[in-house]
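Case study B.
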Amino acid sequence: MSAEPSLRSLRGGRLLVSVVTASAMLTGCVSFSPDGGFAAVSSAARERVAKDVVWIRSDSERNTVEQRVAELLAKPLSVDDAVQIALLNNRGLQASYAELQLSEAALVQAARLPNPAFSMLRASSAEAGVREFKIEQALTFNIFSLITMPQATEIERRRFEQTQRAVTLDMFRLANATRKAYYTAIAAAETVRYQQQVRDAAEAAAELARRLAAVGNWNKLEQLREQSFYAEAALGLAGAEQANLSAREQLIRLLGLWGYQTRLNLPERLPDLPTAPTQQDNIEQLAMAQRLDLQAVRLHTEALAKNLGLTKTTRFINVLEFGPARVLEGARDSGYKTGYEVSFELPLFDWGGAKVATAEALYMQALNVAAETAINARSEVREAYSVYRFQYDIAKHYRDEIVPISKRISEENQLRYNGMLIGVFELLADARSQITSVNGYIDSLREFWIAQADLDMALIGKPDLNLPDMPRASATAAAEH
Amino acid sequence: MKSRRDFLFGAGAVTAAFSAASVSKVALAALPELVSQTSPDTQAPLMPQNGRPYNPVVTLNGWTLPWRMNGGVKEFHLVAEPVVREMAPGFKAHLWGYNGQSPGPTIEVVEGDRVRIFVTNRLPEHTSIHWHGQRLPNGMDGVGGLNQPTIHPGKTFVYEFVARRPGTFMYHPHADEMTQMAMGMMGFWVTHPKDRHPLIDEVDRDFVFLLNAYDIDPGSYTPKIMTMLDFNLWSWNSRIFPGIDSLNVRWKDKVRIRIGNLTMTNHPMHLHGHEFQVTGTDGGPTAKSSRWPEVTADVAVGQMRQIEFLADEEGDWAFHCHKSHHTMNAMGHDVPTLIGVDHRGVVKKITELVPDYMAMGERGMADMTEMEMPLPDNTIPMMTGEGPFGSVEMGGMFTVVKVRREQKRNDYSNPGWFAHPPGTVAYEFDGALAEPHRRQDGGGHSMPRQHQHQPGQEIEVQVRKPSGHSDH
Ligand SMILES: [Cu+2]
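Model:
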């Protein structure tokens, strides 16, 4: 910021000091908050999911967290415990807390005056034994920043709030992902147990078939048929085991566990289906009031509005600097002349129109993005609720219809076996199909709990609904930040 | 002996019914009384109260239709209708029949009688009646479309002809015949000789029944009418053992049994303890020169056979179709043979999945009668029937002819199990068994095989010898 000194004034030094002092008073002291903005995140965690969050910044905090995680891991893990561990222990979430710090630093920076600049020119020449000097000294201060500081601070304050919401949203997303991974992992383990039963049934059939063939009651073809059921059942079990391992690792990653902690202890069964699905008539209003992404996008829009106003008022001003200057010209002893130096750049070529157009475009874009986000939020929450109800009905149908019917079919088959109306192989085939229907119930129950988690998420922020991929406007993605 | 009125109104099992939904009362007033039977028990012979005298038959698990005389004509009233037939205690079938039962009541007339039969149709579809084996005017033969229009639901037709020749006959529909016979529509007809007939002996007991077969899935009630051969219930008069009454006779009685076959396969009927002769077919009495002693007579499809014997051996004598599947009730035909298959280890594994599973068939099928296990609704075991020495392990076309000294003449009641004179029942030998001498050369060599099995290829058949109850 060293402009060519062109104006001079005499009493500039004192004036500058007073202006700087006044403007510092005007903007108030914006300094670093004691919690770094984390209070917003932790209160949201407490209120919305009844969980603790800790921003680990010291060894003692780390120890506390580790101890807490160890306690939670000591017993069979409930879904709430899993979410709690993830919120305490997930390093990605900890990393996102750093955003708070960065954002707050920007806010504090915006509220501080720029440092004054000092410039100096010293030139001398000797002509016929006379030494001529030219010394120019100027202490300048960017006055423009004085004008813009309140607005810039306001913008940064909103950015900071936005960041707080974004971090809070990250926390909720992690909670949501953890719930889903938790249910998936339990269901996968249950499926393994059922696939083991299928394998056992097929194994028993294959063994019996082998013995039938060995004593000459069956031919090779009949034996091989049962053998092939067994071979397929073994394949099914292997697949289920791999799926179980993947589901478990996914959960472990979200919980941020490693080493001995990975021997986490999951319950054997998914929680039962609730007796009735939750009724939610005012779900859209609820989403409008609660969703953090809507709040973030509104703050973003407001920030851009301020920015637009600022750009409009300052469209002609590129730089305005002001400061005391003193100049010595001629002989060394002719003394300094003191004065002001103000430099001002005229918009001779750049009339600021492009800046305003950009700011306007950004603002209009943000308005549309905000509107779209709101419209999508209404739709997402409706859809999440519908998926939730659908999954509830499906799981209930499995529980109340399909599983009991297949059980009754098995009972009837048992009666037919008793009467020698069917053979043991039909009995075993039926046992396999009954297991399959029980497994179908487990899957549907898992889908229900996932839908529940997604519905909860849809009321806080954008849910990750399990839907076919659709092209999205890049602006939508932009609105999330 | 009960009077006819007693028979009609006194016995609780027989009810006069006038509540025909689709037949007007006025029309019914002109008809003979409509008598129907609700009990599946063997009814006492119906002694003729009017008309020419004759010696009546006994319909096994059935009854004879009463008639009225109207100007010298014997008038009967048959009603074709849906019925519920108890095929054995604990097992009921939804069938079609006549006058409350399937088969319908036996019609008994005397050679030369003019017979008028009113046939009312209470089925959901048209029907007709064919008088199997009778000589009659062509228009009375009952083939729907050929000899007459069919009898539509709610309509009553009249058949009238003279019972010209004595013998053993039956009646059955000849309209949608496959369905209606598969549903149980049939009945017996006996024409007694007017006078002594040189080829027809007087007998003390004269039993009649029809062979019929149904395909009723265990747990269901209605026969599958499309089944052609794979029937699962082989019945006499729509009854299956142990639901078939015994044939109770007095020692030295001359016994006649008339059997008609309306199934789709033949049945070799086999009587224990006596020889019999086939004395008649649906064509009439056989010539004496053509009769020879038998213990098994095949009754082919659509045939009537009349067998006679002197019941001169006391005891409880089995009487059954000799096709062993026909002395079984419903069973799976696709069940693997488990004889000799070692179940050890496997049973435990299966029980973990199918908790009520019990290994059966490892030693044979008799397990079936030894374990009392729950069956599907409306189903009786494949083989069952408690005799004095244990399970008879029979079903389907099986019963017992009981010959007793104490049985009174014309008494058809069941005398209970036979009291064997001492020393006349097979007994367990408890001496030592000598090892029999066995031939080692492996049999005849009239056509030795070109290629012998290589020693390594020899098929090893492991024969498990009975060793009491094994460990299941
Ligand atoms: Cu047979």
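Chain A has twelve helices and four strands. The remaining cases will be described in the next quarterly update.
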